[in-house]
Amino acid sequence: MTTEFYPTPAFPISEALQWRPSQQLKLTSDQASWLLYEGSLTQRLKQVGQQFSVTLLGQQLLSPHAEEKQRLDCKDAVVVREVLLYCDNQPWVFARSLFSPSAESTSTLNLQKLGNQSLGESLFARDDLEYGPIEVAEVSPEHPVAQLNQQWFQQKRSLLGRRRMFSTAGEQLLVSEIFLEPSSLYPLPQ
User: Fold this and answer.
1) What are the tens digits of pLDDT across the range 29-75?
2) Whether 126 contacts 169, CB under 8 Å
């Protein structure tokens, strides 16, 4: 099965979610092992599958959701980057990253030239990387990312996501990841 089987959705995709501390969501041990994983998700996905790839859905200056604006403590538009992380030619994770235009133009971060490369791999290679606590969210079946999951995998269900703030090179990046059907977070269909 190739990535062409999964049509590229229109950018931007994600809508606002209700993020909360991880203790407020009841998780199975497998869900917790993925959602609360402190290291690079890219590296973990590379360990799980034979093949890892990133598909850039879009990266441009946009107005963030009200809650994201508050979380980033910004008043203006930010750079919104949305990608799909593929493991063995299946989309496992939808990721949405937000950062300031100054972060995008900082040559040390190389964010304007990432394209189909992993942001996580770039971030976790930095010596000055700091990150905040992981927040989690339940993604309703009506959310656009859950609708994609249903379209691609014929499973109408709530999905799980995680988010945290990263700081490096004097910049902040807000990164959220929603796990799709191929991941091991969900019970197998009956």
Assistant:
1) 999 999 999 999 999 999 988 899 999 999 999 999 999 998 888 88
2) yes
Q: Which parts of the chain fold into alpha helices (H)?
A: 29-35, 41-48, 66-72, 101-105, 119-124, 144-153
Per-residue pLDDT tens for 81-136?
999 999 999 999 999 999 988 888 777 777 888 888 889 888 888 889 999 999 99
| Burial class of residue 155 (count of CB atoms within 10 Å of its CB; 0-12, 13-18, 19+) | middle
Domain boundaries, the chain: 18-134+148-179
Over the range 56-83, which residues count as b (16 or more CB within 10 Å of their CB) and which as e?
Answer: ebebeeeebbeebbebbebeeebbbbbb
Multiple choice CATH, 18-134+148-179, 3.30.365.10, 3.30.70.3450, 3.40.1410.10, 3.40.50.720: 3.40.1410.10
In the chain, count of helices (H) and strands (E)?
Answer: 6, 8
Can you tell me the distance from the alpha carbon of 2 to that of 48, in angstroms, rounded to the nearest whole number? Answer: 18
The closest of 67, 69, 56 to 172, measured between CA atoms, is 69
Q: Where are the beta strands (DSSP E) in 14-147?
A: 20-21, 52-62, 78-87, 90-99, 130-131, 135-139
What is this structure's pTM? 0.93
